Amino acid sequence: MTAELVRLAAWLQAAGCTPVAMESTGVYWRPVYNLLEPLFILLGVKAQHINAGPGRKTAVKDAEWIAELLRHGLLRGGFMPAKPQRQRRELSRHRATLVQDRARVINRVPAVCAEANIKLASVVTDIRGVSARALREALIAGPQDVAALADLARGRLRPKRARLEAALPGAFTPHHSVLLTEYFSQMDYLDAAIDRVSEVIAQSLAAEQEAIALLDTMPGVSQRTAEILPAESGTDMTRFPRAKHLASWAGLCPGNYDSGGKRLSGKPRKGSRW
Fold first, then answer.
1. Residue 94's CB: how many other CB atoms inside 10 A?
2. Residues facing 8 on adjacent strands
3. What letter does residue 145 receive in the DSSP assignment?
4. Residue 208 and residue 214: Cα distance in Å, rounded?
5. Of 80, 177, 193, 207, whose Cβ has the fewest other Cβ atoms within 10 Å?
6. Which pTM was predicted?
């Protein structure tokens, strides 16, 4: 509870503590970090860096061990960006989750059509396009003549009307109509949500437009990726002594594990999926 965290902060201040170390596991550290950040020098330490070895393990013993290591200057805090960057991270990651959710919904639509013996996916490549939307609305509306349905094709799909007529006959029922209506409603909502979050991200990155423009010139980096990179690593590269340190932080460089003069493994560590 927040009241307990306030008592913790008061106790630390009364004890004259300046640096405070905590184990940054999962999301449990975030409420503590948010409240203590303005008052102390905080170190979020990875669990594998503070293992106390085999023996009895309790939360109290872990706290005592962290305090002992901190007292001797043996702890090194992980990279913790400033609060504005952390907020941009949350926004960009939320947008990525929304895009994944939309992709899952989109993939369900051909499955429903296939269950109704309508092979729409073999002809229509973009089920979110103008032609696909018109076909979907006509199918949901009720029984339609196949030729009339195929005549709804527009643009590049227009020359494929003969294939559409072969793909559209099926056993489309009101049950399938309900499912398609739900899926496309979800798609519309997710499209609107992605647009809203993208607008907020663009506003938060207004001061980083020069860096984003430079990143966008790199092969393989789109505008969307160029927005994600500053949110994850920031634009202040002084925290990384060399480019190799940035690659290591991202988990993109080989590992180094040798013993007895033999190189045993070069497997890279698992980096953040974001």
1. 15
2. none
3. -
4. 10
5. 207
6. 0.77
Coil, strand or helix at 222: coil
* Separation of CA 156 from chain center: 34
Q: Where does residue 5 fall: left (phi above 0), alpha (psi -120 to 50 degrees), or beta otherwise?
A: alpha
Please state the length of the chain: 274
Tokens standing for residue 14: 């009364």
Least confident of 25-34, 143-152, 181-190, 246-255: 143-152
Phi, psi of 168 (to 5 degrees): -85, -30
The DSSP line for 32-76 is HHHHHTTTSEEEEE-GGGS---SS---HHHHHHHHHHHHHTT---
In this structure, which amino acid lies at residue 255?
G
Half-sphere exposure of 248 (CA within 13 A, CB side): 12
Q: Where are the alpha helices (DSSP H) in the chain?
A: 2-14, 29-36, 59-71, 83-115, 130-141, 146-150, 161-167, 174-204, 209-216, 223-233, 243-249
- Name the β-bridge partners of 257: 265
How far is the C-alpha of 193 from the C-alpha of 168, rounded, in Å? 32
Amino acid of residue 30: R
